[in-house]
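Is cytidine-5'-diphosphate placement plausible here? Inputs below.
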Amino acid sequence: MKSLVIAIDGPASSGKSTTAKLIAEKLGLMYLDTGAMYRAIALKIYQSGTELTDKASLTKLLNSTTVTQKNQNGEVHFLLDGIDVTEAIRTPEISLWVGPVSEHALVREYLVNWQREIGKAGGIVADGRDIGTVVFPSADLKVYLIADSHIRAVRRQKELAARGIVQKVEEVEEAIVKRDHRDSNREHSPLRMASDAIEIDTTHLTVGDQVERVLALVKKLQTQESK
Ligand code: CDP
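Reply from A.M.:
I modeled the complex. Tokens:
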């Protein structure tokens, strides 16, 4: 169990982070939210006014940036250069900005290396877009979560509303569909289901159901391994 690597990928708001976090908690593994890393880098680039075309400045920025995750009262917090950016990285603006940033080869190379370093000892549940295809292609278990785009927009709208950000469901859905399209059609590490991933459609599932399904897959894996 301690060396298990679980990859949870899928489109925007498909329930990856919630599922991955709970699975990690239940199995006593480390949880890694790679989307938060891309979001934090996007925030720093945005705030510093760095042009994505300026390779030298971008490299300098990446080499002087740290993004860390810490658990605080059961919540996962993200620190960008030591400053808590948990709320700041979840705004609709950063959701727009993260697209072009995550397409950039330099950013991807930097973050993928870092993610592999974090996960090299195993014992990790990571969620993202390229975990099963690029970051940990030999993960023990690969799950690909999907859900109807309207349901995903309703979930994201609720999440935003809980943080005081008001947006119409149609607006949220349009942004989600655009981001999925961008993530799926980019040159580097496009969003794809790995050929050995197991797809779970969460449209009609509760969070509890999702977690149970993934836990059942882990159990199956362990039973197979012990034979
Ligand atoms: O929570 P949500 O599914 O909306 O997104 P996220 O996991 O926070 O990821 C934000 C964005 O970062 C995605 O739309 C991708 O553009 C990018 N990303 C990526 O390219 N590769 C990853 N492993 C994780 C996120």
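Short version: The chain has one domain: 5-202.
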